[in-house]
Each structure stands twice: as structure tokens, then as C-alpha cells.
């Protein structure tokens, strides 16, 4: 049974119907009428079967080309944060991870061209994602738990970052590449990136690099903490070298990537470091009860703590078409990552995190058999994680995870059916006074897409997915100052089971286009951080399990007004609660994004493009115990770009003005929302030259 629609979903449905009726009533012979729009069919590689985004039973977002250039930000979370159904964790300027349908952390799988990004960002929101948006070619987002090729634990969705670091084709002119320069005013950011590919015969090489220098950013008007967030700077250096052998039926390549980051950890409250527990109660000594419990560490002369991150990664990618009878494609992915980051206080390393991880996967896509086309795959991952120092709240662990999956599709007439099955198992060995644990899980998804009229598609997806607990949820034990928590793991956790239904309606061509989705997800044995006590800004949390329900709606509808202008209405809403509980405040889950609704006016004239965007993020009153509500805010953004040529060399010049009204805004998804509000008025300018 579908969930009852919220007021926002009803408003979106009414607007969709009104816009569609207006489009149908437009005079077809009127020369001023809006021209027909045909959305580009984009193949989604993360779907497992390279399905077009419009033919999928669950919503998919694909950002690429000039649109991605205009939307890219310093972090992956910020880059995607304005897409319907997607928000960001927002931890200063250096760390920001996508939040999809209210889910984050291990429930959102981050990939680099189909291989998992092996960093420490799932452990804590103050840990940066080891992926660089400015060097990405395309970003794909699959919502819901149906992307079983990458793990049953991806209940929220999958984000796949595609790049060019391993060439898959020889450049037609022998050499190709791009250079991009950009800067902004709010963080006084300066950034530059390049990428170049050269090849001849069967060999191609690729090199790319980036450098970013951003200072403490400026917030909206009226913040009691001042005009800039102390410790919100972000310095990044990234470089990559790749080599490929390319033949008529495939390629095989390897790449080495090095990323170095230094970024601050704003909101660090030094005076809470002596907090400790007595049973299930918190005690924070050394306080006299005054109002100084939130003073910043910088006041004591040591400066704001910061992170020095160093990630070294090797990638192997290959594809071979028609390797033998009955198999249309063989695809391999392998990676090895040595990830290290130090958290530094008062000039000395306080905690060191290390994550040495390897992954391998093999996919075999079979030729059509009885009308069915599918892919079978095997995946294995090894993760050796350790933390040493003052805030080593997770003991050293070794996690081995393996999986086998099968995805099939069957098109017939106006219908397309799909099914996915995955079995995975893991073993977690811990170097502490605790027992090792092993878990198994099975996941299944079924979907159907009905093209009931030209350019219309109705999709239905049903999924049962199991997520295995992470080492952090099992064994955490200690103080974590970045999030102001003392954490306790639970070695008795078992796999959580999600039952999801997703209904989507799309129109892909014509003066009116839209994509609307409603979803309902009941998660049995949902693993969450249960707050046992809170005192002076510190929380004592323990990982526990209870059933939870996620219900929501997301979508957008665009109306082409005339030959230049188009208008888009967009929005999203998610309600996340524990099933049962003693009262309303005991049932709401923490850091669930508030509803959002907005309008976007776009214009295209010759080589010019522009857009004016206005949206409202509501006040979040549905908060968990010990969590404060977050006021709503309005955001006004303006952007323009010009695509031209200099001596036959194409370039794109773009300018963006974000938060034009200098609104003081807080992100409810952030652990440090009060210590690090969102960026204030910001002007970004950049140019990208392609050769």
C-alpha cells in the first residue's frame, strides 16, 4: 500500500497537471509557441546493464557536460546538494558527503567508475571523500536499494563518479584535454585543474591534476559567531597518471592517483574533552555552570584542529566485448587504496586514521537468452582500518566482504521488466577485547517500466535489501570530539532488512517534461545512534536497532515557455521515524533534511545560457531527542555561461552568484550546524578550455 501523500507531494502533482494541461492547450501552429524538448538519453553505467536513465524503474540523476561544469563545487556533497532528494552532510568546507532520501554514511555507496571509493568518510562526517568533482567527467546517482551490483547496503542509493584517468579510446587527433580555472569570493578560493590524453596505435596515456586553495568562508548576515567560520579552509592537491592498451574489442588500463588535503575542523569545543561516562550518564568536569561551554578551541591559542589527508590509489579497469560464445562483455575492476589522515591539535598529531583497502570485481554480461539480457558478477573487498591516538574511538579492525549478484532485464512491447539478486557475506576481525563477528545477507529487487503513451513512463520498483553492520557500529568505544559524541558500539548487531516500494512517473519529451517519485521504505532492525544522555553539548550514543520507516516524495516538472525561457518547479520531502516509541520525540530520527520547494527560470539564446533559482528550505521541527530544531531559509541563486571559440578552440565561461540575499542559513543534516552555517553571498567565476 502506498503511503499517504504529504502536502508538498500534492502541490507537486497539482503543478505537474497544470503545466501539462497548459502545454496541451498551446496552439501547435503558433510561431511563438514553445519548441518541443527532447531530453537526452543518457546511459547509466552504474545500472549494471547500461540502461538509459529514462528507462529505469527507479529515479536516476546524471550530471555531465557543461551542466556539471557549472554545478561542480569543492566537495561531492555540495556538488549534488541541490538535486531533488539529495542533500549534504556539510562539515565545514573540507568534508561533505551526499545524503539521499534522508540516509547517509554506509547506506550511500560512493563509487569511482564502478569501484568503491576507499576512504574513511563512512566512519564520520568530518572525514573527507577521496574524490574530486573538478576532475569528474560525469556523476550518476541511483536512488533506492535497487543497485544490487554494488552492495545490498546501499539502501539510500549509489553515487558513481566517472573520470578519464584510464583512457578507453585513442584520441581522434592524437591529443585531447582541457584546462579549467575558477575562483570565488566567499572563501577567497582559487582552483585550477587540467587533464590531457595522448595516444597512438593501441596505447594511450592520461595525466590530470588539480590544486585548490580556499580560506575560511564567509557566512550570511547576522551570525553571532562573526562573518567567517574559523577553521573552514580547504587546501587540496590531486594528481593522476593512467596508461591503457586499447583494441577493437576492448581495453585494459591502470592508473595511479594521489590526493592530499588539508582542511579545518570548525566547532571544536576544547573544554568538552574531559567529559566521561558513569554508566549511561555523562559527566563533564571543570565547568562552573556558566555559558562558556561552547567556546572555540582557537581561544586557547592552539588554533582550530585540522586534518591532513593523504590518499594513494591504484586502479585497474578493463573491458572485453564478446570474449567467448554466449558472453557479450567481460568487465573487470580492481583497486588498492592506502588512505591516511592525521587530526592535528596544538601543532601535534592527536589521532591517526589508516585505511588500507583492496577491491576486485568481475562482471559477465550474457547475450540475450529467451528474451532476457543480464549480468552476473563477483565482488570481494578487504579493509584494514586502524585509529591511534586521543580520539581512537574505533579499535583496529579487518573486514572481509564478498558478494555475488545477478541482474536481468526483459523488454517486451511497451514494458520493460528487471530483477536483481545479491548474496553477500562478511567477517570482521577486531584487535581488541571483543569477539569477531560474521554476517550474511540476501537482497532482491523487482521492477517494471510501462511506456503507456509516447514519451511517458510509469515505473514501479520493489526491493528487499539487507545491510550488514559496519566495524564502527559494532566496536566503537570512546570520545569523538568532531561530532561531540562519546560512542559505544554494539557487537550484537545483526543485519538490517529494508523493504522499499518506489513509484515514479516520467515524461521525457515535449514542451512539458517531468520526473516525480514517491517512496516508502520500512527498515527492520534499523541501526542507529541512540542518544542515552546529553550534557553541555556532548552526547553519549550507543548503536542500537529498532524498526524505522522512511516515506517521501521528490521530483521536478519543467515547462518550456517559449523559444528562450523555461520554468521548473522542483522539491523534495522525507519523513523518517522509528516504528513505535514512547513519544514523538523518541520516534523522529536525527539530522533528517527539511522539505524543500523551489522555482528555476532558465534561458538559452545562442551561445548563452542562464538561470535564476529561488527555493525555500522549511523549518525542521521533527527532531530526535536531544536534537534542536533548525529554522528555515530562502535561497536565491543566479548563473550564466557562454560557450565560444578562440581560433577553433572551444571554451566555456561561467559565473554563479549564490545566496544573493546573504541569508544566514543552517543545514539540519550537519553535526555542527550552529558552529558552521552555510556559506553566505558568493560569486564564482570560471573558464574551461577544451582542446
Automatic annotation (TrEMBL):
Residue ranges annotated for the TonB-dependent receptor plug domain, each copy included: 58-158
One of the record's GO cellular component terms: cell outer membrane
Cellular localization per UniProt: Cell outer membrane
Signal peptide start and end residues: 1-21
Keyword set, alphabetical order: Cell outer membrane, Membrane, Receptor, Signal, TonB box, Transmembrane, Transmembrane beta strand, Transport
Biological process annotations from GO: siderophore transmembrane transport
Main location: membrane
Pfam family name, one: TonB_dep_Rec_b-barrel
Gene Ontology MF, one: siderophore uptake transmembrane transporter activity
InterPro entries for this protein: Beta-barrel_TonB, Beta-barrel_TonB_sf, Plug_dom, Plug_dom_sf, TonB-dep_rcpt-like
Domain TonB-dependent receptor-like beta-barrel: 292-642
PROSITE patterns, alphabetized: TONB_DEPENDENT_REC_3
Gene3D superfamilies linked: TonB-dependent receptor, beta-barrel domain, TonB-dependent receptor, plug domain
Topology versus the membrane: Multi-pass membrane protein
Keyword set includes Transmembrane: yes
UniProt similarity note: Belongs to the TonB-dependent receptor family.
UniProt-recorded name of the protein: TonB-dependent receptor
Source organism per UniProt: Azoarcus sp. (strain BH72)
Amino acid at each position: 500500500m502506498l503511503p499517504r501523500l504529504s502536502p508538498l507531494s500534492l502541490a507537486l502533482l497539482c503543478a505537474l497537471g497544470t503545466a501539462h494541461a497548459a502545454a496541451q492547450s498551446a496552439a501547435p501552429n503558433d510561431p511563438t509557441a514553445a519548441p518541443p524538448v527532447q531530453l537526452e538519453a543518457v546511459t547509466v553505467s552504474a545500472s549494471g546493464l547500461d540502461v538509459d536513465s529514462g528507462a529505469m524503474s527507479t529515479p536516476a540523476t546524471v550530471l555531465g557536460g557543461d551542466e556539471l561544469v557549472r554545478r561542480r563545487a569543492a566537495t561531492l556533497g555540495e556538488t549534488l546538494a541541490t538535486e531533488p532528494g539529495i542533500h549534504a552532510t556539510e562539515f565545514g568546507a573540507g568534508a561533505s558527503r551526499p545524503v539521499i532520501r534522508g540516509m547517509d554514511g554506509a547506506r550511500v555507496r560512493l563509487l569511482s567508475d564502478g569501484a568503491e571509493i576507499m576512504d574513511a568518510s563512512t566512519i564520520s562526517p568530518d572525514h573527507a571523500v577521496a574524490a574530486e568533482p573538478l576532475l569528474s567527467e560525469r556523476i550518476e546517482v541511483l536512488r533506492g536499494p535497487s543497485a544490487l551490483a554494488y552492495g545490498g547496503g546501499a539502501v539510500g542509493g549509489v553515487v558513481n563518479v566517472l573520470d578519464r584517468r584510464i583512457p578507453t579510446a585513442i584520441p581522434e587527433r592524437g591529443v585531447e584535454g582541457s584546462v579549467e580555472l575558477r575562483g570565488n569570493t566567499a572563501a577567497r578560493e582559487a582552483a585550477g585543474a587540467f587533464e590531457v590524453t595522448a595516444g597512438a596505435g593501441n596505447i594511450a596515456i592520461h595525466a590530470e591534476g588539480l590544486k585548490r586553495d580556499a580560506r575560511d568562508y564567509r557566512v550570511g548576515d547576522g551570525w553571532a559567531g562573526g562573518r567567517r567560520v574559523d577553521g573552514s579552509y580547504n587546501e587540496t592537491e590531486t594528481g593522476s597518471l593512467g596508461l591503457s592498451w586499447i583494441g577493437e574489442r576492448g581495453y585494459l588500463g591502470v592508473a595511479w592517483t594521489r590526493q592530499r588535503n588539508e582542511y579545518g575542523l570548525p566547532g571544536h569545543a576544547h573544554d568538552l574533552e574531559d567529559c566521561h561516562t558513569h554508566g549511561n550518564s555523562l559527566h563533564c568536569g571543570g565547568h562552573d555552570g556558566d555559558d562558556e561551554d561552547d567556546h572555540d578551541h582557537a581561544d586557547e591559542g592552539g588554533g582550530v584542529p585540522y586534518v591532513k589527508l593523504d590518499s594513494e590509489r591504484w586502479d585497474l579497469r578493463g573491458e572485453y566485448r564478446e570474449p567467448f560464445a554466449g558472453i557479450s562483455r567481460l568487465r573487470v575492476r580492481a583497486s588498492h587504496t592506502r588512505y591516511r589522515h592525521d587530526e592535528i591539535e596544538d601543532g601535534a598529531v592527536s589521532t591517526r586514521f589508516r585505511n588500507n583497502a583492496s577491491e576486485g570485481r568481475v562482471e559477465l554480461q550474457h547475450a540475450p537468452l529467451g528474451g532476457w539480457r543480464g549480468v552476473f558478477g563477483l565482488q570481494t573487498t578487504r579493509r584494514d582500518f586502524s585509529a591511534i591516538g586521543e580520539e581512537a574511538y574505533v579499535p583496529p579492525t579487518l573486514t572481509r566482504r564478498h558478494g555475488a549478484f545477478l541482474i536481468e532485464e526483459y523488454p517486451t512491447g511497451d514494458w520493460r521488466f528487471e530483477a536483481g539478486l545479491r548474496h553477500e557475506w562478511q567477517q570482521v576481525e577486531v584487535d581488541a577485547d571483543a569477539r569477531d563477528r560474521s554476517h550474511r545477507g540476501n537482497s532482491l529487487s523487482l521492477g517494471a517500466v510501462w511506456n503507456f503513451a509516447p514519451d511517458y513512463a510509469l515505473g514501479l520498483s520493489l526491493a528487499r535489501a539487507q545491510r550488514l553492520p559496519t566495524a564502527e557500529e559494532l566496536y566503537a568505544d570512546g570520545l569523538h570530539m568532531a561530532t561531540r559524541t562519546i560512542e559505544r558500539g554494539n557487537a550484537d548487531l545483526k543485519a538490517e532488512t529494508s523493504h522499499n516500494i518506489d513509484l515514479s512517473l516520467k515524461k521525457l519529451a515535449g514542451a512539458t517534461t517531468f520526473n516525480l517519485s514517491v517512496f516508502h521504505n520500512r527498515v527492520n532492525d534499523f541501526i542507529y545512534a541512540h542518544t542515552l544522555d546529553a550534557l553541555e553539548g556532548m552526547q553519549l550514543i550507543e548503536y542500537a536497532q529498532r524498526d524505522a520507516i522512511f516515506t517521501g516524495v521528490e521530483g521536478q516538472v519543467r515547462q518550456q515557455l517559449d523559444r528562450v525561457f523555461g520554468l521548473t518547479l522542483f522539491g523534495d520531502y522525507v519523513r523518517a521515524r522509528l516504528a513505535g516509541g514512547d513519544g514523538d520525540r523518541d520516534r523522529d530520527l536525527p539530522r533528517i533534511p527539511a522539505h524543500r520547494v523551489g522555482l528555476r527560470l532558465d534561458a538559452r539564446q545562442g551561445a548563452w545560457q542562464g538561470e535564476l533559482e529561488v527555493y525555500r528550505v522549511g523549518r525542521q521541527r521533527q527532531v530526535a531527542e536531544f536534537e534542536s530544531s533548525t529554522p528555515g531559509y530562502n535561497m536565491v541563486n543566479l548563473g550564466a555561461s557562454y560557450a565560444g571559440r578562440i581560433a577553433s578552440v572551444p571554451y566555456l565561461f561561467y559565473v554563479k552568484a549564490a545566496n544573493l540575499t546573504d541569508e544566514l542559513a543552517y543545514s539540519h543534516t550537519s553535526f555542527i550546524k550552529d558552529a558552521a552555517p552555510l556559506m553566505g553571498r558568493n560569486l564564482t567565476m570560471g573558464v574551461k578550455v577544451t582542446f
